[in-house]
Amino acid sequence: MLSQQCLQQRRKFAVAFLAFIFILAAVDTAEAGKKEKPEKKVKKSDCGEWQWSVCVPTSGDCGLGTREGTRTGAECKQTMKTQRCKIPCNWKKQFGAECKYQFQAWGECDLNTALKTRTGSLKRALHNADCQKTVTISKPCGKLTKPKPQAESKKKKKEGKKQEKMLD
């Protein structure tokens, strides 16, 4: 009896082992039948970097506008494009509309030139603009004691206009 049980266990083991070998062979054949896909070629771009022109406002000298971009390359699909841009209206356009400066307080009035000056250091440059690191500006000195006769003349004009409207 003991030998029959031993034989049965051996047969079961042999069948399981043969099934395992058969499954391995089937999987190996299925993988061998598949063609290996060639790796996609990495496309190297012949195109250069985009070079952008200055922002040109659509109206006036600040606000919304456009800039032109160009790049070079033998196989570039796109060598020119237009991009929307904005020039802030409160920037000092004297130093370039794309350069923002942080200015110091106005200096004392130079009595020889009748001008006062201040310097500014570059705070920010838009779109890789070519900006000076520091700039100096000057303006005429204001008179220290200057009465405001304009305010009185404006009141007189308004009163005159009101009287004209009443007469009409």
From TrEMBL:
Residues covered by region (Disordered): 139-168
Keyword set includes Transport: no
Record's subcellular location: Secreted
PROSITE patterns: PTN_MK_1, PTN_MK_2
Pleiotrophin/Midkine N-terminal domain sequence ranges: 34-95
Upper classification of the organism: Eukaryota, Metazoa, Chordata, Craniata, Vertebrata
Encoding gene (name): LOC101392886
Signal peptide positions on this chain: 1-32
Domain Pleiotrophin/Midkine C-terminal: 96-158
Pfam family, one: PTN_MK_C
InterPro entries linked to this entry: Midkine_heparin-bd_GF, PTN/MK_C_dom, PTN/MK_C_dom_sf, PTN/MK_diS_sf, PTN/MK_N_dom, PTN/MK_N_dom_sf, PTN_MK_heparin-bd_GF_CS
Family according to the record: Belongs to the pleiotrophin family.
Keyword Chaperone in annotation: no
Protein name: Pleiotrophin
Key words, A-Z: Disulfide bond, Growth factor, Heparin-binding, Mitogen, Secreted, Signal
Function: Secreted growth factor that mediates its signal through cell-surface proteoglycan and non-proteoglycan receptors. Regulates many processes like cell proliferation, cell survival, cell growth, cell differentiation and cell migration.
